[in-house]
Amino acid sequence: MKNHTFIFCCVLLSAGCQSNTMQYIKSQPSDFRKDVSGKAVDLYYLKNKNGLEMAVTNFGARVVELWVPDRNGDFADVVLGHNHIDKYVNYQGERFLGATIGRFGNRIANGEFTLGAERYEVVRNEGSNSLHGGLKGFDMVVWDAKQLSENEIEFTYISEDGEEGFPGTLSVTMTYRLSDSNAFEIVHKATTDKQTVLNLTHHSFFNLHGEGNGSINDHVLSINALSYTPVDSVLIPTGELASVENTPMDFREAIAIGSRVNDDFEQLKLGGGYDHNWVLNRATPTEVELAATVYEPVSGRFMEVLTTEPGIQFYGGNFFDGKVTGKSGKPYSYREALALETQHFPDSPNQPGFPSTELKPGEEYRHVCVYKFSVK
């Protein structure tokens, strides 16, 4: 009987069911095991030696929970999410909670672009624009998942030629890792068999008070950028790189998010608050460098965002309305979460002055994003 019990436990562990080793995670694998479009969805757990814990699902390669300590050593879940797969598949309100975004993060104007001599039309899902890859972007597909260790998981996905209108068969490999320096590290890699455009990003929504625990306007933000890309009335970049000097877009010195969010400034009106791309100050084109920091003074939680990318989208939760309840039973309300999405610039395929998002056969796309946690 003892042997049978041991074997049964080993089978559970190999299937990714590690709830007995997690101190804080509340999400259960049984609530995430479901076939979606003929592929199996599951829940996986990561943990580092310092006790940071993360739950992820292979539906959209989504982060479901992420537990980090405050200055007193008390842990809280700092990302928004749901406790059942059905709430992600049949979403109401915010679609992109914790997800991987692709093929093209952010917006493409009029859902079209020219590549070489070809004109391509991609799925329009935000008025006339394509947003975050279309109706069935990478957030809405089932990735193949392989748990590499207690603190690392690998996701793979093959995006067929023509998916959502994008050219080329794209092979994507992505790893999530909880390092022992308390960093959530994301490494995206991809290749294509045909010239295409690609702009992957990660879309966790953070609240360093803990998810559902009030406004993020008291979070103190810095962004390492001298300029940003202004947008028009449908949030498409104008093509200008505008200075942040003497504007509410200046986060070169850390400042509370809410201190200027309601200023009489045209770009804030267009975005309903902060929902813009900043042009990062970079010493090199490909190394991992600091992009932004966030500090929550009450808990002391401090998050650094590092990346290889030229831009970062800061979104201040302007469209949350309290109608959707999250995994802990709390409503997700106006400006109670923020996203910091490392990326190439929005609408780059139609903006020749922006860094290119073209990927050709024989090349490898590589994008590193790191969210590193500490306390102050």
Q: Would you kindly provide a brief summary of this structure?
A:
The chain has one domain (69-135, 149-376): Beta-galactosidase, Chain A, domain 5 (Distorted Sandwich).
Descriptive notes:
The protein is globular. It has one domain: Beta-galactosidase, Chain A, domain 5 (Distorted Sandwich), CATH 2.70.98.10. The strands form 8 sheets. Strands 12-13-14-15-28-24-23-18-21 form a 9-stranded antiparallel sheet, with no helix packed on it. With 376 residues, the protein is mostly beta strands. Strand 1 and strand 2 form a beta hairpin.
Helix vs. strand class: mainly beta
- What is the level-2 CATH architecture name? Distorted Sandwich
Number of contiguous helices: 3
CA-to-CA gap between the ends?
A: 51 Å
Number of domains: 1
Number of strands: 28
Residue runs with pLDDT of under 50 for 5 or more positions:
1-20
Rounded mean pLDDT is 94
Stated plainly, the CATH topology is called Beta-galactosidase, Chain A, domain 5
* Shape verdict: globular
Report the portion of residues in β strands.
35-45%
Characteristic key phrases:
376 residues, mainly beta, Beta-galactosidase, Chain A, domain 5, 9-stranded antiparallel sheet, 5-stranded antiparallel sheet, disordered N terminus
Topology:
Elements (H helix, E strand, L loop, with lengths): L1 H13 L19 E3 L2 E3 L1 E5 L5 E5 L4 E8 L5 E3 L7 H5 L9 E3 L5 E2 L3 E4 L2 E4 L8 E2 L12 E6 L2 E8 L10 E9 L4 E10 L3 E2 L3 E3 L16 E4 L1 E5 L12 E2 L11 E2 L9 H6 L3 E6 L8 E7 L5 E7 L3 E5 L23 E5 L14 E2 L5 E11 L1
Antiparallel strand pairs: 1-2, 3-4, 4-5, 5-6, 7-17, 8-11, 9-10, 12-13, 13-14, 14-15, 15-28, 16-27, 18-21, 18-23, 19-20, 19-22, 22-25, 23-24, 24-28, 25-26
